[in-house]
Design goal:
There is one protein chain. The chain is of the alpha+beta class and 425 residues long. The chain contains twelve helices and 17 strands. The chain has two domains: 76 residues, Helix Hairpins (Orthogonal Bundle); 307 residues, BirA Bifunctional Protein, domain 2, CATH 3.30.930. The strands form five sheets. Strands 1-10-11-12-15-9-8-4 form an eight-stranded mixed β-sheet. Strands 7-13-14 form a three-stranded mixed β-sheet, with no helix packed on it.
Length: 425
């Protein structure tokens, strides 16, 4: 959530920044609500002062032996009017909060201009796409040829956009996850967490999935008000909600492996083949919580840590900086890491690393006590995949295939598979 003081003090600058996303700020509604808030707040403060003064007068009149009934009636009337004004102020504040909750984050000045992904800027590449002397197959053809990836069985169980992995491919998937967790916790200093896969509405609001993206979530039926997590970013980030951290605790770097659940509403026809876009998939998520001055250094660290996974798997990739129109709702700046997929002959996103600055922290009421001033300030939060396990599995299968359909196992994963060097052979 944006700091409302920014809108109050420099509405034009905020509107110009948000326009870089293609977002049109409803300035008229904000100004109307803000003017109403000021008027009613003045009324509340005036009535409160008058009630307090009349209440003091009752005590003085009583001590002087005077009739206090007129004053008592007057205080009662002031209390009634004050209650009505406070209720009106609360209603206005709620409408302001609803307006604010639908406004995306402001973009960092370094974010390139552009309306969509065609304006994203490539920052760097690593590795060369493999050159095959045969026509490369995609993971669907390879998996079905091996009999280890089964979309039909999943469809009978759950419908479209689910998959059943079997035997060696299921083991490879698990090996990838364990390799990621080991790398991030043993070398990069992340603290591993096991977190709930169901969260409440407050948690999803805190990280910005609600209310704007409710249609993208899976809600559990019943009276509990619980939702399946779209990413471990939600429970991990909310671990600091409603807390005032000590400066010495920062930066916090947390990791978790979880399944992720997304309804993919509105994406019918997009990536319907294979495992690229599923309702259920696995990720190793990385979350940083830090002081405001450190967050852009933390963003570079986050991206570098995710890149390490792909380098050790020897998977070609590139890093792109998202333009304003392609940057997510809660992010101030985002890097996407895109891995090469021979089956599609293109780079596809495998990790999205974002600095949300204080946007999520304000929604979660997550703060740190400034060591110099002793006052609490909003922390900055960052998140990124380290990396998406399903897409890493696709990349390994497609980049490590041979002409016969056998899959070579990357060197770093062989210890996780009992020394096995190939799958399907």
């Amino acid at each position: 959530m944006l700091d409302i003081r920014a809108l109050r003090h420099d509405l034009d600058s905020v509107a110009r920044n948000l326009a870089r996303r293609g977002f049109v700020l409803d300035r008229e509604t904000f100004l109307e609500l803000e003017a109403a808030r000021k008027d009613v707040q003045v009324k509340v403060e005036t009535l409160r002062n008058e009630r307090n003064e009349r209440s003091k007068s009752i005590g003085r009149a009583k001590a002087a032996g005077e009739d206090i009934e007129p004053l008592t009636r007057e205080v009662g009337e002031l209390a009634r009017r004050l209650s009505e004004a406070e209720e009106a102020l609360g209603d206005i504040q709620q409408r302001l909060n609803e307006l604010l909750s639908g406004i995306p984050n402001m973009l960092h000045e370094s974010v390139p201009d552009g309306a969509d992904e065609t304006s994203n800027v490539e920052t760097r590449r690593w590795g060369e796409p493999p050159s095959f002397d045969f026509e490369a197959k995609d993971h669907v053809a390879l998996g079905e040829q091996l009999g280890l990836i089964d979309f039909e069985a999943a469809a009978q169980l759950s419908g479209s956009r689910f998959v059943v992995l079997r035997a060696e491919i299921a083991q490879l998937h698990r090996a990838l996850i364990q390799f990621m967790l080991d790398t991030h916790t043993r070398e990069h200093g992340y603290i591993e967490h096991y977190v709930p896969y169901l969260v409440n509405t407050t948690a999803l609001f805190g990280t910005g999935q609600l209310p704007k993206f409710a249609e993208q979530q899976f809600r559990v039926s019943g009276d509990d008000g619980l939702w399946l997590i779209p990413t471990a970013e939600v429970p991990l980030s909310n671990l600091v909600a409603d807390r005032i951290l000590d400066a010495e605790e920062l930066p916090l770097r947390m990791a978790a492996h979880t399944p992720c659940f997304r309804s993919e509403a509105g994406s019918h026809g997009a990536d319907t083949r294979g495992m690229i876009r599923q309702h259920q998939f696995e990720k190793v998520e990385l979350v940083h919580v830090c002081a405001a001055d450190d967050s852009y250094d933390e963003l570079e660290t986050l991206v570098s840590n995710a890149e390490t996974i792909l380098k050790r798997l020897e998977l070609p990739y590139r890093v792109v900086t998202l333009c304003g129109g392609d940057t997510g709702f809660g992010a101030a700046k985002t890097y996407d890491i895109e891995v090469w997929l021979p089956g599609q002959q293109k780079y596809r996103e495998i990790s999205s690393c974002s600095n949300c600055e204080a946007f999520q922290a304000r929604r979660m009421n997550a703060r740190v006590r400034n060591a110099a001033t002793g006052k609490p300030e909003s922390v900055h939060t960052l998140n990124g995949s380290g990396v998406a396990a399903g897409r890493a599995l696709i990349a390994v299968i497609e980049n490590y295939q041979d002409v016969s359909g056998i899959i070579r196992v990357p060197d770093v994963l062989q210890p996780y598979l009992g020394g096995r060097e190939t799958l399907g052979g």
